[in-house]
Write a structure and sequence with these properties.
This protein is α/β, with parallel strands linked by helices. It is 22% helix and 24% strand.
Length: 350
């Protein structure tokens, strides 16, 4: 019996040690807003964006972020990265700061989007961030989280100028991918996607051992060229988080296909993002193994949605389910649908 107890203790210790070496990431369901939690093997945490203002929808986004932190064993946000100042990314930061301690606030600097709503959410954010530790980052900087590498490859409309190690290949899609011309938005206002806050978003390359992931936040179609034309300055990745919730104002083929992601995750909502054009771009990307979605996109039907096991929130079921990604140093990573615990493991590229 004593030997059995010793064996059980050793097994638990090995399991705990293994878990401690895993980078865990949680795509939180904020229904078309953005909140992406990364928990380092060191125990430190980084939250990328925080959803909409806490006063809306009874603080739903903030509640879900707090619950996700509890699930992940996170009691403090060490780095709160606000990629840009759209309300669905920065709006929830003050409400979250009232619920959880935040170590360092990270953003791209000055706001470039002048409208009443944006000015208000930026003011509310600055009121909180400037009372704590705030860091403004630029392309080439690294967020000093312990346990994995978080490099800023684009911010404030400017990208890294030199290719990263292993990158630098010519990108033929630069010549065949047309630029988009911006017109009136849904409110009848001319909104130039190449100069608004989306274009200024922080783009992060996360590296853990042999694993690489690109999260372009809401970076837009024409701005992709800053990193991928005439050469690919980033290289290939294992995981790609769709830009701008999977909208077709972003996710140009010249970026998605140059990255050659093995897995793509869309942080879309039931009626936002994950558009059919982006679905086609992703599905036709070289080397793609699977496309995962935060939500079933109602308007697309089965023509532009993946199989239900790869969708965290499906029509007719309660929302709020996450997609979890667990990464090992050798490049192996597992994606789990926390709605039904369906998971798939992806071995390192050979």
């Amino acid at each position: 019996m004593r030997l059995v107890r010793i064996a059980a203790f050793i097994l638990l210790a090995v399991s705990a040690l293994s878990a401690a070496k895993t980078l865990n990431m949680y795509m939180i369901d904020v229904e078309g807003s953005k909140a992406f939690l990364l928990v380092s093997p060191s125990g430190q945490s980084m939250l990328i964006d925080a959803g909409i203002p806490g006063s809306e929808q009874n603080g739903r986004d903030t509640n879900r972020i707090v619950e996700a932190c509890k699930t992940a064993g996170v009691k403090k946000i060490d780095f709160m990265v606000t990629t840009h100042y759209d309300g669905d990314h920065v709006g929830g930061v003050p409400a979250l700061a009232a619920r959880m301690p935040i170590g360092t606030f990270v953003d791209h600097g000055e706001n470039v989007q002048i409208n009443d709503f944006t000015l208000k959410v930026v003011k509310d954010y600055m009121d909180v961030a400037t009372k704590g530790k705030r860091v403004v980052v630029k392309a080439g900087d690294k967020i000093p989280i312990k346990g994995f590498d978080a490099q800023v490859v684009m911010a404030a409309g400017k990208a890294i100028t030199a290719p990263l190690a292993g990158a630098g290949q010519p990108n033929p899609l630069c010549d065949t991918t047309p630029r988009k011309t911006w017109g009136l938005n849904s409110r009848g206002i001319l909104d130039n996607q190449d100069t608004n806050e989306n274009s200024h978003a922080i783009v992060l390359l996360v590296t853990y051992g042999k694993f690489r992931m690109l999260d372009p936040a809401d970076l837009t179609w024409n701005m992709d060229r800053e990193m991928f034309c005439p050469i690919n300055r980033i290289g290939t990745v294992d995981l790609y988080m769709t830009a701008n919730h999977g909208m077709d104002v972003a996710n140009s083929p010249l970026m998605v296909h140059a990255l050659q992601p093995r897995v793509v995750i869309a942080d879309n909502g039931p009626r936002k993002g994950g558009t059919p054009d982006v679905f086609k771009t992703v599905e036709s990307s070289p080397g793609l193994e699977d496309y995962w979605q935060e939500h079933y996109l109602i308007a697309s039907g089965d023509k532009a949605n993946v199989a239900p096991d790869f969708i965290a929130n499906i029509e007719g079921s309660p929302d709020g389910k996450m997609i979890k990604v667990s990464v090992e140093q050798d490049g192996t990573f597992t994606v789990t649908n926390m709605r039904n615990n369906f998971s798939k493991t992806y071995k390192p590229r050979k």
